[in-house]
Structure formats: structure tokens, C-alpha cells
Description:
Blueprint: H1 91-101, E1 114-123, E2 141-150, E3 165-173, E4 176-183, H2 196-203, H3 219-227, H4 232-239, E5 253-254, E6 259-262, E7 268-277, H5 286-295, H6 299-309, E8 315-324, E9 330-331, E10 334-335, E11 351-360, H7 366-370, E12 383-384, H8 389-405, H9 488-495, H10 499-514, H11 519-530, H12 534-544, E13 577-581, H13 588-600, E14 604-609, E15 614-615, E16 623-624, E17 627-628, E18 639-642, H14 669-680, E19 684-688, H15 691-697, E20 707-710, H16 713-724
Parallel strand pairs: 13-14, 13-18, 14-17, 18-19, 19-20
Antiparallel strand pairs: 1-2, 1-11, 2-3, 3-4, 5-7, 6-7, 6-12, 7-8, 8-11, 9-10, 15-16
Helix pairs in contact: 2-3, 3-11, 4-9, 10-12, 11-12, 13-16
Amino acid sequence: MPEETSTNIPGVPASEPASLEEPTTPREPLPPKPDQRGPEAVSPTGSPTGAPETARAQSGQYLTTAQGLRLRDTDHSLKAGSRGPILLQDHHLREKITHFDHERIPERVVHARGAGAHGVFRSYGTAANITRAGFLAKDVETPVFVRFSTVLGSRGSADAVRDTRGFSTKFYTDEGTYDLVGNNIPVFFIQDGIKFPDVVHAAKPHPDREIPQAQSAHDTFWDFVSLHTEAQAHTMWNMSDRGIPRSYRTMEGFGVHTFRFVNDEGRTTLVKFHWKPKQGVHSLLWEEAQIINGMDPDFHRRDLADAIEAGAYPEWELGVQTFPDTEDQMFEGIDLLDPTKFVPEELAPVQPIGVMMLNANPTNYFAETEQVAFHPGHLVPGIDVTNDPLLQVRLFSYLDTQISRLGGPNFGQIPINRPQSPVNDMLRDGMHQQAVHSGVAPYRPNSLDGGCPFLAGEDVGAFIDVPEEVAAAIKERRNPASFDDHYSQASLFFRSLSPVEQDHVIQAYTFELGKCYEKSIRERQLAALANVDSGLCAAVAQGLGLPAPEATEQGPPSETSPALSQIGKTWPVAGRVVGILADADSDLTAVNAARQALDAQGIVPLVIAPSGGFLGQADDGGVPVQRTYLTARSTEFDAVIVASAAAPAPDAAPGLDAKAGAPGGRVDPRATLLLTEAFRHAKAIASLGAGAAALTAAGIPEDAPGIVAGDDAEALVTELSGLLSAHRVWDRFPARTA
């Protein structure tokens, strides 16, 4: 079969094609795929080794034990005769089974399901006047590893659930490792970290039945957030389209807390971190998400890996909002230490300070993505924490968690966690110690080891704690009065959305509360929504069949923040996925032209045909097939080109594929399903040549918004990419009337 040279289709499982017969000639292990990269090969104490990244991978041509003993058989246990009992002396069996029995480590309590990638961060230098952090100096490039995750689900849960997402970045700077541990939502559920066990217990599956998995549509969650009304702002973000991103590549990230920058003169500035995706912020529709979780529960991690493999490297710009470091740490009436509050960008613009590109997939999920350990206390000179009461608890909790989950205090020596700067910490021994320490005096001062290690001064990069004055105060358990506003920001967020986005929020609240068993919980949350927005409350109450309560608190001002809406801008199209519906009767020259035109714009074209293989002759202008009517679903594609009348395929029978429905008709029912789903999900659709007949059979009006037609493949792709740049054809959604 010839290579596909016109387009870069991701998904190849190995760096070389598999042979039909089992290979029997000994050879060294295959190298990683071109899109993969492992952690930098530094020693457990941060020294460069000069070894390639693959030095830690398996080596040698032959199967061995863990101690390097070559083996001649690994399929049969050592027995007393072919039908006799297995012998205890089978050292290979015992090693193999024992290691297997201990392969799993405790999964994260939250953020258990994740995906990661390697990349590089390049600083613009625009923050150099407010922070002495070396990696933020002009044109400094820093290796990074990023882990994206969902919060509530287990490792085996689905990706496209309505949930908060983690967005955590490990910067391997030459001043030590810096971790920016954030989320895709800038506000949190709670104001004080002492409540963190409570909110997680409430949001996780019910402890008696361990359901529902990876979702908040249940009684304990809404019981908690309706009683702890400080959670209303976060809940509003989560019920919006932000709760179900289209891709990690189209997801914003936030540091959530307020941090402190310190410059060379010791002056301090308060900052909030923002990651802005270069492809814009884009989300799934609720029905899309439900279909995806059944069709492809690995949707987000596959999307990230495939984009990197295809060379469509995702990028985010890192920016900061800056605030004067005043004694009260307030800005425009917003308490900067309250993690349930965000500062609208219209009040404090986000100033870009660098750009991050993810350009390599992990070589091994467990060794890298699963074992990477983040901690907000991993700081570098020039960046310090504040007294945010949630952040203060995280500074303890994250370190404590890593020790438990990764088997001891030496988790920083795991390759993905190793600093890429010198380490001389005087810490010794412990579980999984990988360094071989020398010297006899791991204390200071000492004379036996020549006085080493020495204390550093500020002139050689020491971390200096900000000498913040701690005023005399009464020891007490309470929040400041500025934490008491629980509704104004939820209201600001909702009122800043476009009508179609508001409809999605109404749908989300109605669905989630409709899944609650207890009527009192639904009524209590409606009472909270009444204090957010009366129209929102009335619409949700109508869907629940309950009366809408009156507000009990003074309504907030009617200002809006346009930056909160995801609609109204255009974005680059590289990395999008377009499905091309074709068959043997299609104009294959035009199909190939469309594929090449899409590929030229960095868009991944996937051909959908009645069966796999090639359309036409493989060696004479044939078209390789990536999906079939059986395996394709509209949710995988950002847009669709129909280059076929889509006659029924041989397997268009309910017994072979239930999506085929009842037999009969001129169009394969699965093609009709794909097109009608794409249409109601507001995706651009183009008909090329004979494709117009399939659209007509699906009942899609040719004059509907976002429907284009033509015979010139290149011109059609140009028009389609213009529609793709807006993410969806938003005009296809009628505005809701109150």
C-alpha cells in the first residue's frame, strides 16, 4: 500500500509499520515516534548527563528479567510435568506476576483523569520590570510539561463531561522548577481550603452506590453548593459552555489565585495568571458531549495527541493582570485574596508576557503524565504567594498528597519531576531514593565536606521571602466582610454572555437540577439563582416545573464583561478536523484536491466512505479512507464536506449497525444521521459535486446559514475555512424569546 504523502493523518501507533508475520530476527527496540519526547536526561540531582532521552527506555535485543537475565520462554510457567502443579522455584513467574500485582499506584483524589504533553515556553520579556524570575526575561526559552485533567472523574471516566478542567504547567527553569497549577475557570467553589475535603466529597459519586461518575448532576453536589452560596460564581462558569471544552487546545487557563511578583529592586506587584489559547476559546454543545462520551470517551486526550502528531502544535499566550500591592489587597472593590472572585479584563487588561507551544507527546503515559507531581509551593525567585486562604491550604495539601501517592518523599527524583538545575538539598534516604549521595556531612555548617552546601545570597539567585508585615490580629475562624458577596460575579458572568450562550446555561441548570432526587435541593438552588438573575431563575424553574422564587438580596449592577463571551471573534483554523463524505462514485480528483487544500491550511481531512481501504486505485489517484459509515460520527468533525450522494452501503442493516435504522431509501441512514447532527450542532457543511443530493435527502436547506456548495474544491475549502474560523455557525441558533 503506498504511503499517504498528501496529508498528515495522525494516529499511527508505532514508529515503523507492523509486519504481517511475527518478526523473528533479533533487533534493538524501536525508537519513539517523531511526535514523542521523554523527560530531559538529567541525574536525580539535576545534573546534565549527556545521555539521550531514550537512555531510560528498555534496551537490548532479547527479553530479560528485571536483573538483565536473558529468557527463552515467557508463555509457560515452570511445572512438574506438562499437567503438573507450578513450582515455587519459578523465579521468572514470581517476578513477572509480583510486578504486575503492584503496577498501579493510588490515583489522584481529584484530577485523576489527565493528558499531558511536552513543550517550550518563550518569554517576551514584558514582565522583566515587575519580576526578577529568570525564565521571564526577554527571549528566554524554558522546557515545560503540561497536564490537563478533569476534576471529578476517576482515571477510567470520560473526557467530555461537564466539569472543571485542570491546566497545570511545570517550567524546568535554571533557577529551579516552577509549577503554575491552574484550572480552566478563574474562580473556585470555596473561599477557604479547610472546606476542600467537603466540596470534593459532595461532588464525587455518592458513597453508597459510587454513582454518578464524573458529573455534578446529583443531590450531594447541589446540596453543598446551594448551602455554601460562595460556590455560585464557580457553578455559573461550570454550567456555561466553559464546562465542556471542545478541546484542551481551545481552553483558557487561569492561576485562580492572586500571586506576588518581586522585581530586582524588591518592589512587589500582585498578579493573576491567564493562559489564552491561540485557537480561541471553543466548547462542545451538550448533545455533542453526550454522544462523544459514548462514541469516544478519550476524545480530549486523543485530540491533543493527534494535533501534536499532525504538526498542529497548540499554543497559548501567558498573560498577567497586575494590581498594586496595597495594604488592603483590594482592586475596584474586588478582594484579590478571595478565590471565588475574578477581575474583569475591562478593569485590568491581560498583559501578554510569553507564549507556550506544546510540540511533543509523552513516550510513556504512566512514567510522565501519571507520575508528574505539581505543587503551588514550587516557586522561583521573583514569584511568591499571597495570603489567599485557599492557596495557603494548597501549599500544604499538594506536598502531602505527592508523598502518599508516589510512595515517599523522593517523588522529585522521578524523571518527569527532576529539576533541570543543580540540586544540593541535604535530604537523604527515604523510599525510592535514586541519587547516590557522597560526603559525610548532610548538615550545615560543616567542615568535613568542605563547608558545602553554602547558603546563597540574593546576588546569586536565592529565593527571598517577601518581608510582608503581619499586623497584630486576633486569632479567629472567620472571613473578612469582603468575602460576603456571593452573587454579583455570577450575575456579571451570566449577563455578559450572548443569548445563545445564556440558553446553554439555562439548559445546563435545568438538566443538572432535574437529576436531583430531593425537591428541597432544587428549590434551594432556585433561590440562589433568583439572587443571580431573575430571568435565569424563571427559565430554570419552568423547566423543573417549580415556581420561581423572589430574590432575597439586592441585585448587582448591570455591567457586563465582553471578554467572558466565547462568541463574536475569528481564530486560526490549523488543527481543526474536517470529515469528507465520499464513495467510489465521487469525483476522486476533486476529493483529493479538497484534501490537499485542507492540509495546506493545517486542517486534518478524514475521508468517510462505505468501507475501509481505498476509493479507486491505490496507485492511481486513489483516496485512502480513514473512517467508515460504521465508525464515524459527526462529533469528531468541526465541519463536513459531502462529495457523494451517499448511497446505502452493504452493511446498512440494523443487525450490522443499529445507526443504519430501517433499510430502504436512496441515502445511507448513517450519512443522514451524520449530516443532521452536524447541522443542528451548527457546524459548517459543504457539498462538493454530487453531495447536494445527500443534503437534500437529509432535509438540510441549501440556503441555511453555513451551507456552501460548488464544484471547485479549492474555492469551497476557502469558504469553509472562513466559517470554521468562527468555530460554529452561530446564526443557525434562533435567539430565545423570554
